[in-house]
TrEMBL record:
Gene it is expressed from: HMT-2
Protein name from the UniProt record: homocysteine S-methyltransferase
GO biological process: methionine biosynthetic process; methylation; S-methylmethionine cycle
InterPro entries linked: BHMT-like (IPR017226), HCY_dom (IPR003726), HCY_dom_sf (IPR036589), Hcy_S-methyltransferase (IPR051486)
Cofactor: Zn(2+)
Cofactor binding, per record: Binds 1 zinc ion per subunit.
All copies of domain Hcy-binding, residue ranges: 11-333
Positions that bind Zn(2+): C251, C318, C319
NCBIfam families in the cross-refs: PRK09485.1
MF (Gene Ontology): S-adenosylmethionine-homocysteine S-methyltransferase activity; zinc ion binding
Alphabetically ordered keywords of this record: Amino-acid biosynthesis, Metal-binding, Methionine biosynthesis, Methyltransferase, Transferase, Zinc
Length: 347
């Protein structure tokens, strides 16, 4: 099922109702590609697999669907026309790879739905198992910093030479292509600052993009995104955009999520999406995740009911989370999906 071209907010509310009031978002893509043998030591990161091993991407999507995900996110986070062209692809070939990222996700959904008409049978409860599992495909768009591959996606500090227009010029064609790819929505992910959120809003309007979207920011605490910009101000930018059907947080330590949900709710009545990382820290110089304040998978999942009660309507995982994590989230939500959310207009 898709969100269609009708009122996007109403479509998202309908989707959430079909999902039992709260939807499960998938987990980390790169982690699982590496676990399946992919070498991602490349500026394109997981997007490299779009031309080197698309079968692995399809497998990861299927693994998350089997775990109970209602939303799978395409492997296009690091996929940019500029990045592909730097590897020798033509503009036409680069755009085709963007399309391919969504095609692979849609193929996985089709395979899953043809084999499991009523869901993955993982959540245990009879009523949950018999309910048809609604599935959306989200086209991922990563930040400008992700393309730079210099760690600035984790700081949002692009330098004074990078203006609003710079960001709009960089993202424009990518947004247009993914809006026409057949995805159900666009996931603008790991947004590190207010200016990039504003660039996305203006691109959606200027290019008459009709596909729904969500904006998820990366935060350093319960009040500010990683650049230091206010979460309240960033949420307000997203909230003002009609295309935006959910606002939230990703790639942020779990310990900040509950407070961030309360902060976001002050600035929007739209559904809140949260998919934190494992709590580990990414070392941009070493190009690897290092243990810092990471938590166990059991502790991660223990937060889920609190996030739901605080007002989150879409819950999943980001970097270093796995299908096992998502399965546990789906199982945890199966007991609270019908419970009311705090000050939420979504159920």
């Amino acid at each position: 099922m898709g969100l269609g071209l009708r009122d996007p907010s109403a479509a998202m509310r309908d989707f959430l109702q079909q999902a039992g009031g709260c939807a499960v978002v998938d987990g980390g893509m790169a982690t699982e590609l590496e676990a399946n043998g992919a070498d991602l030591n490349d500026p394109l990161w997981s997007a490299k697999c779009l031309f080197s091993s698309p079968d692995l991407i399809r497998k990861v999507h299927l693994d998350y669907l089997m775990a109970g995900a209602n939303i799978i996110i395409s492997a296009s986070y690091q996929a940019t026309i500029q990045g592909f062209e730097a590897r020798g692809f033509s503009k036409k070939e680069s755009e085709a790879l963007l399309f391919k990222s969504v095609e692979i996700a849609c193929e996985a959904r089709g395979i899953f739905q043809s084999s499991y008409r009523n869901g993955p049978y993982t959540v245990g409860a009879d009523e949950a198992s018999s309910r048809k599992q609604p599935i959306l495909v989200a086209a991922s768009i990563g930040s400008y910093g992700a393309f730079l591959a210099d760690g600035s996606e984790y700081s949002g500090h692009y330098g004074k030479e990078v203006t609003l227009q710079t960001l709009k010029d960089f993202h424009r064609r990518r947004v247009q292509v993914l809006a026409e790819s057949g995805a159900d929505l666009i996931a603008f992910e790991t947004i590190p600052n207010k200016i990039e959120a504003q660039a996305y809003v203006e691109l959606l309007k200027e290019n008459n993009i009709r596909i729904p979207a969500w904006f998820s920011f990366s935060s350093k605490d319960e009040n500010d995104v990683v650049s230091g910009d206010s979460v309240l101000e960033c949420t307000a930018v997203a909230n003002a955009c009609q295309n935006v059907v959910a606002v939230g947080i990703n790639c942020t330590p779990p310990r900040y999520i509950q407070g961030l949900i309360f902060t976001i709710r002050k600035a929007t009545d739209k559904p809140i999406v949260v998919y934190p990382n494992s709590g580990e820290r990414y070392d941009a110089d070493r190009k690897e995740w290092v243990a810092s304040t990471s938590i166990s998978e059991e502790d991660f999942v223990s937060f889920v009911s609190k996030w739901r009660e605080a007002g989150a309507s879409l819950i999943g995982g980001c970097c270093r989370t796995t299908p096992k994590t998502i399965r546990a989230i789906a199982e945890a939500l199966s007991t609270v999906r019908s419970a009311p959310q705090a000050t939420s207009a979504c159920d």
